[in-house]
Amino acid sequence: MSSFLALVAQDIKQRFGTDLSNIAVVFNNKRPITYLKKHLADTYGHAIWSPQFFTIQEFFSLASEADQVSQLTQFFYLYELHNELLVKEGHEPETLEEFYPIAEIILSDFSQLDYDLVNIDHIYMELFDTSKIDIEFQHLTKEQQDFIKQFWQSFNITGHTGVQERFLKLWKRLPVLYRAFKEKLAAHNHTNFPTIYRQLAEGELDNKALTDPYQQILFVGFNALNNAEATLFKNWQEKGKALFYFDADTYYLDDNQQEAGLFIRRNILQNGLLNALGEAPNIIGNRSDTIHLYASTGKINQTKLLYDILVNNEQAEKTSAILLADESLLVPLLQSLPETKVNITTGFPLIQSPIFGIMDLWMKTQEQISHQKKTKITYQDVETFLNNPLTKISATEKMENQKFINEKQLFEINIEDIQIKSSVLPNFFKPLSSTKEVIPTLIHILDLLLASLAQDTQIKQIDANLLIETKKVLNQLHLGFEKIPELSILFQIGLIRKAIAPINSAIEGDPLEGLQIMGLLESRCLNFDNIYILGANEGILPKTSNAATFLPNTLRKAYGLPILENQDALSAYLFYRHLQYSNSIHLFYNSIVDESSSGEESRFIRQLEFESKFNFIKKQQQQPILFPPQEEELIIPKSGDVWNYMRAKYIEGKAKISATALTTYLQSPLQFFFKHVAEIKEPPRISQEFEMNLLGTVIHNVMETILKPLKGLEDFTPTKQLLEKVNDVDGLVLLEIARQYNPEIKEINELNSLQRIMHKIATEYIKMYLEYDAENFQAIRIIELENDKDYSIDFPIVINGKEEVVQIYGIIDRVDEVVTDLGEVKKRIVDYKTGGDSVKFSSIEKVFSSNTENKALVQTLFYAYVFEQKTGIKDLEPNLYVARKMREEGTIFHGSRGAVMQDEFLTEQKNEFVKFMQETLEEIFNTEIPFKHNPDAQVYETDPYTLFYRNAINEEEETKE
User: Fold this and answer.
1) H helices, E strands: number in the chain
2) Under CATH, domain 4-63+206-270 is a member of which superfamily?
3) Cβ atoms < 10 Å from Cβ of 162
4) Do 658 and 811 meet the contact criterion of CB atoms below 8 Å apart?
5) PD-(D/E)XK endonuclease-like domain location, by residue (predicted)?
6) Strand 840-841 versus strand 825-833 pairing type
């Protein structure tokens, strides 16, 4: 079957011969012009006088010498005129911020009323009774009059609500505003397409100037006509000046239930336009070809599925097009295409480019530092700037900024502390000194980016186009803003975002070769051998929303204005027409239900399945269950360089082994190797939640500040004095958080949200510690406090049959003597914990074992042993202060069967602990036992070494198998 434009070319040759110089060919858009030229060349086979080609808007604009005015200029005209009307009515003029939300709707409605030649006075008339409707609208059908009555009856005539009253006042004002707007355009020798359409149809512009130069005007591929077009087309057809080529099929044209044929039926039956191609063929109804339907598991996955199909399906002699029902898929599509020639009609959107990323970040930043007068911005915004390739900040300066943020764990950064002097945008984070600087500064940023891109060896044309088009829009906005009193930064930025959103840059290729990518609307008149439609979901094809309007649906129906059903009919036609000519049809939709997808294929597809003879082959994408290749378990033998380093570090170099290192080994020998042998540290990062170890640091340091005056005193201090310190805790915690984060913090309200949470938790924990001591003891004497330097000892172990010595050391949080309520004096070693530790254990055997069930007990016994050996002070009782549990569980370690770490049982277990510690240390240095992960160990999500544990094998289970 020949394509539509091939049939048009054949008919043109038959009708007009070889001289087409006085023929005009008019399309709805530009793309079909290239294709018709090719078909004419193929049909004639030799050189001919070419017809003149136009889009419909280019053709109609020949009738007016006025300049086309931009949408932004129209907006500013409308704003000025609307305020003049308000003043005349005795009202206060509106600000631009107040008027902007309704301005777009008013302009859109004015345009629609012009295109469809609606009487402005009638549609905006203030009606009060049905008899007036009967008199004023006798020319309308009863159904149309009923729609108008239905609209006005929705208002209670006896008393309007405030909203209704404002609505009626606006409606009464709109006809006056419409005329003033048209006069304003004329006074500046400006016009727009809706004005030209109405003036041509109503005879204000001489349409003979359009038709006289040509023998015939051929309108090709038109579908949905507005009333102005229909009026002109009928007139020109009656005068023998116009021919119409409708692309249609009887499958949907002759069946009134088929929405795809709505507009062509209207063109032929109601408007009396004749199809120059004669009767429409019945192609779709007779086809039994295969249609491939693909259900993808996600929106983006449609493009991934398409890749494989293109690789297997594409042939050099066949024409192919990817039609984007969902145009937001363009960028992921470009990232998924195989190596092939591509021509993109839709254009690359600015909002998906790195340029917009920079602009958006600048506007977001200025909303904070210039509008809200903040002096800090989030670390994510700084990271975004540092990592954007267009900023071209030096590697050194980038690293310095990141190091500064990470070391201080700054969730928010003072803008004065951001160093970006090497960047092409060194003043990016500088606050604006005036609201008038918004657009000039943004234009300056674009100029700097353009200059920077120009220095590259090969500037991307797409980036240059986007920058230039964006500057044009910003300059138009700037001209409009200059005439208006001061506008808020927030509003200007909001308007800028809206104005630049539609900008795109065409990615040009050969429109006649390779893979063509376009939207459905751009595919009008075009046919391809292979068709791939992406986004064929219900809710997208067709869309379920209409443009905002002040013209309610009842009135739109009464005046024949477009309604949602019209949009459905147009979408149906754009979809169905491809079934007439394409041989290979592939439809893709997202089968996942989420906030943006119904998970269902378009109803057009379901209708075809039910009504047509097409054979649908459905393919549901399955999420593959990926079994990673069975990699070998990571095991580090203690040999060669590893053993030599361990010996040099710990035996000869006397590197100290801490309690934390010991419990790390018990839980995962492999992690011990990474952290303490290989010294592979966790990379610095900013956490969205404060780190528990930093909370612990704050608590330890404040407790030291409170208890330090008691250290070394010979006499006991009554614990009631500790309660006197409770009122000081808030201030002490604030000072400590400031010391950890930012010394300039002086008040609680200067803390960010996470720091406030930390302040609250630390304050409550410390108060609980002090209150616990006051409630449970009469007096206290501090022996040692927060000492991480003085407590290390030599510990003999056997390595390879020979006695060696390693050094172990303990960090002593607190050693004290307390007097109980019974007058008993106890010596204690106290460890503060802020995490999920507990004083409970099920059995001591499970404590003194690999993957210990209570590492806090192991660590506290470790500290007690080192302290006792170093000082000679004996009988220390281990205590654990866990704020969230200490009131219920106490602070003394105890087993589930009544064992309590006190008195004889404690003495016995201290001896057992020393044996256990010796066995563990000897195992660490046993060259026959490699470092490997214990698969039973608890692994936290934040563990940076998780990747290395994934192949760990449980030897006991493996042996059983």
Assistant:
1) 37, 26
2) P-loop containing nucleotide triphosphate hydrolases (3.40.50.300)
3) 7
4) yes
5) 657-935
6) unpaired
Domain ranges of the chain: 4-63+206-270, 67-198, 286-341+514-620, 352-507, 648-683+788-961, 686-780
691 pLDDT band, cuts 50/70/90, is low
Place of tokens 């006088």: 49
Domain 286-341+514-620: CATH architecture, name and number where available: 3-Layer(aba) Sandwich (3.40)
Q: What does the CA dihedral 838, 844, 845, 851 come to, rounded to 10 degrees?
A: 20
Strand partners, 595: none
Phi and psi dihedrals of 269, rounded to 5? -85, -45
d(CA 6, CA 1) in angstroms, rounded, equals: 10
Contact 551, 260 (CB under 8 A): no
Q: How far apart are CA 404 and CA 417, in angstroms?
A: 9
How far apart are alpha carbons 765 and 835 in whole angstroms? 12
Rounded Cα gap, residues 371 and 435, in angstroms? 9
Read off the pLDDT of residues 645-687 as tens digits, 9 standing for 90 and up: 999 999 999 999 999 999 999 999 988 998 899 888 766 555 5
Q: How far is CA 828 from CA 27, 575, 767, 811, 863, in A?
A: 93, 82, 20, 15, 11
Q: How, if at all, do strands 515-519 and 812-820 pair?
A: unpaired
Q: Which two tokens stand for residue 867?
A: 């302290």
Within this chain, domains 4-63+206-270 and 286-341+514-620 share the same CATH topology:
yes
For the sheet with 216-220, list strands across it.
52-55, 23-27, 216-220, 242-245
Phi, psi at 498, each rounded to 5°: -70, -40
Residues 605 and 127: their CA atoms lie apart, in Å, by: 45
How far is residue 590's CA from residue 586's CA, in Å, rounded to a whole number?
A: 14
Residues 476, 76: Cα–Cα separation, whole Å: 10
Q: Return the ∠ at Cα 333 (arms to 329 and 339), rounded to 5°.
A: 170
771-777, Cβ contacts within 8 angstroms, sequence gap of 24 or more: 771/723, 771/726, 772/881, 772/886, 772/887, 772/891, 773/719, 773/722, 773/818, 774/719, 774/720, 774/722, 774/723, 776/820, 776/821, 777/719, 777/818, 777/819, 777/820, 777/821
Could you give the CA distance from residue 129 to residue 42 in angstroms, rounded to a whole number? 64
pTM of the shown model? 0.68
C-alpha to C-alpha distances, 595 to 299, 333, 479, 598, nearest whole angstrom? 12, 21, 40, 8
- Contact partners, residue 871, CB within 8 Å, separation at least 6: none
- 308-314 contacts, C-beta under 8 A, 24 or more apart: 309/532, 309/586, 310/337, 310/338, 310/340, 310/515, 310/532, 311/338, 313/530, 313/584, 313/586, 314/340, 314/515, 314/530
pLDDT band of 626, cuts 50, 70, 90: low
> What band does 582 get if pLDDT is binned at 50, 70 and 90?
very high
Question: Six-digit token pair at 189?
Answer: 């020798």
Dump the DSSP string for 902-938: SHHHHHHHHHHHHHHHHHHHHHHT-TTS-B---TTS-
Q: How confident is the model at residue 134 (pLDDT cuts 50, 70, 90)?
A: low
Helix (H) or strand (E) holding 295: strand 290-296
Residue 579 CA to residue 292 CA, distance in Å, equals 12
| φ, ψ of residue 446 in degrees (nearest 5) | -65, -40
